[in-house]
Amino acid sequence: MLQGWVIVLVAAAYLGLLFAVAYYADKRADAGRSIIANPYIYALSLAVYATSWTFYGSVGRAAADGVGFLPIYIGPTLGVVLWWLVLRKIIRISKVNRITSIADFVGARYGKSQILGGLVTVIAIIGITPYISLQLKAAATSFNILLSYPVLSVPPPAASIPILRDTAFYVAMSLAAFTILFGTRHLDAAERHEGMVAAIAFESLVKLVAFLAVGAFVTWGIYSGFGDITRKAAEVPKMAALFTPFSGAGPTYASWIGLTVLSMLAVMVLPRQFQVAVVENVNENHLKKAIWLFPVYMLAINLFVLPIAFGGLLHFASGQVDADTFVLALPMAEKQELLTLLVFIGGLSAAAGMVVVETIALSTMVCNDLVMPLVLRIKALRLAERQDLSGLLLTIRRGAIVLILLLGYLYFRFAGEAYALVSIGLISFAAVAQFAPALFGGLYWRDATRQGAMWGLSLGFIVWAYTLMLPAIVRSGWLPASILSDGPLGIALLRPSQLFGLTGLDQITHALIWSMMANIGAYLLVSMMTRPSVIEQAQASRFVDAFKLTGVHGAAPLWRGSASLAELKGLVSRFLGPVRAKEVFATLATERDLHSVNDLEVDADLVHAVERQLAGTIGAASARIMVSSVVKEEVVGIDDVMGMLDEASQAIAYSHELEEKSRELVAATRELQAANERLKELDRMKDDFVSMVSHELRTPLTSIRAFSEILQENPDLDPAERQRFLGIIIKESERLTRLINQVLDLAKIESGRAEWHVGVVDLVQLLRNAADTTASIFQETGVELVLELPEHPLAVTADEDRLTQVAINLLSNAVKFSPTHTGRVTVNLREEGRAARVDVCDNGPGVKAADRELIFEKFRQAGDNMTGKPHGTGLGLPISRQIMTHLGGHLWVSDAAKGGAMFSFTLPLADASNLAAKEWPHDQESAHC
Amino acid sequence: MRNASKTTILIALFLLGTVLFNYPLLSLFNLPSTLFGVPVLYVYMFSAWAVLIAMLVYTFEHH
Fold first, then answer.
1. What domain range is A665 assigned to?
2. What CATH number is given to the structural domain containing A833?
3. Entry pTM
4. B6 touches A at CB < 8 Å
5. Which residues are CB-neighbours of A728 under 8 A, at least 6 positions away?
6. ipTM of the prediction
7. pLDDT (mean) for A893-921
């Protein structure tokens, strides 16, 4: 039943189904309803890690090595534990920078280096070629085995049949066609392929189901459970040895650790794993589920490896069937047609999935990081001036796919037969592991340089080629076997499999140790010896600080230059086509809250956004070339950076100055406000003063006028009465005059226009004179005046007239408030430190504490103005205080010792030598009255 | 576990994994006997693997 055409038809139908899934997913994505935007699809797509190596090869490995197949899956499980820390950072960086592949990532990290990106691409292609040949071998072998159904036969070596009759060739070509149809139908502006991811997730499911089905069939269909198989295996000594593989039959602990580390790295740095895990990632939070779903998948697909291996070893005579084909051979031997077909489909699934993703990832790398940077540099091609380059991009990618598959086929044909599936795959693992130091170092080590990465990668790759690739070529017969056994030119130390005499390790671990020593050593050493350029430093901090930087726009690089919007538009439409370009610019305008695309301002931010957009299609390095072809970019050198720093520090200085100025301004404003308040207050006081003066003037004027009118209207007034009235008029006039004099006086003093004749004055004499002047008032009122003055003169600096005015004012006040006949006023003068102090005490009613400051204000008198008769003008004390203040003394009022008021003033003493020098006693005590 | 950050837990799990799947723990199970009809080494491998995954599930689904 399983004739050739049936198998081909089924295979074609299955690939068609994958294509349909991809097509559907693409349609949904275009409609904005992505079916892959969930963690389950993401986890299943990661399972592209399980290739036909897993599907067929694990059993082969287990049949020879026991647990030897497991590190390939345990390593990734351990690595996955750290994905939340490491892979999430890679994803974050890749999204911000629109990274399209691992070559792009490494190139971008080290200053958008094209050379480094190209180097990674070359290593990836050479390193992955054996891996692709493995898939071709597995697919072709399974097809050939199936063709002879139900007879089990060992297919002849591929090299012996002509290419055109070789199944593997047709497998390679149909997979190439499939991949081209699949991955490069159209050039996305985005670096992501939704349809591909959906198809990969689907095929992951198919291969898991197929493997579990055959596993269950072998375990419970052919045998009766795990126990049965184990028991039967235990009876065969060769198989019983596999129970304790570390005891000699299987791997050593060293190779176990080596493979664990290798696959831990490979699951992140394999181009296809980077493609599905990083580039195709929709949301970094999908990692949360994928981190445990992916290990669950790996555990499940490995569960039946051992029973199938044991089952195959038990079922077939030794050497009759290659252990790598047990998975297919067992259901065939049991004549299970459908199951056999399912297994074939599962294996095809695993191979096709790997080939599709790997070649798409590699072709992107070849296009973006190898061919484009080269052709864009060749000026003769004038590519930079062509209007639409998207067609060229597609052609390059399609060509790369065919080329990569051809390389894989050639490797299979000339070297593949010498190795088992797993061994071929591990060679590739060791090759891509060379990316790990530059990749992970670049994530955390800021000072890693491009030179360091170049040297590390190159040396690591050379050692890999020498220790793994060379032996493979030798074994396929292209070079003499003596190189392996005696070393090149007979130098035993340089034998590729025992480099420098290192023995006791399997080939892979041996190669891993030497290549990593060279790689990491050179990476560290050269990085420490070289100085990163400005762009390297800028990229380093964007990568290392990826979790600290937020948003895309905050990450504009060091950039100076000028470009026109039209040029940028032209550039984008050349690579993405006019329709996509329009959309891109419309989005950019919307992001910046602009209504029209034409409002876009060409600044560093926009140029950077365009570069990112292009990077998503042609890679970071090529995008940089293209953008700099239209942007008149100034080379940012150290001097410019220093200049920028300078500008920045100047700006900071300016802003400090500005702050200082504004602080001063605030202070000045506050002062102005205070001055304004003060002015208003003064204005109000002036108004009050004017109204008070007017009021005070009106009182005597009123009585003068009243008495004058009486005199005028009554000419026959009694002469005595007339005399009295005239007396009042004269007295009121005198008061009026005095008042006006005092107002003028006060105004003069206050405005500072008063004339002062300051000299040395004998205060004792001055007080005596004042007492003489006021003696008449004292006599009239019968108030006693007691002078307590020192015997000797007391010199003060003062204006004699003004000071006399104060003394007279105080004395006359004291008289006014002293009771007639019993009144007693004491004047006491004494020295107090460097000042002379005068107390004028009376035995009147005193001044209430509340009034003590009030009475020094203009027109304020103690007591009730309404009832009591006014005792003066109300200006005497204010004038006296002004005088004292001007002379540098104080005037205040307090309670006298025996009741009544005590007005006191102090004045600083003048230099005594100015008066007749005399020894003055200092026995005066405090208040004597 | 209450106060540990996810980073700490994950690094601890990674270290646990490297110990579980490494010499010398592996050598303890490198025995010719069987458990549940399966060679002891395989029982150990898959159960340790499952436990590690279970801890990952706990870390990401219960935090």
1. 642-748
2. 3.30.565.10
3. 0.66
4. yes
5. A703, A707
6. 0.93
7. 71
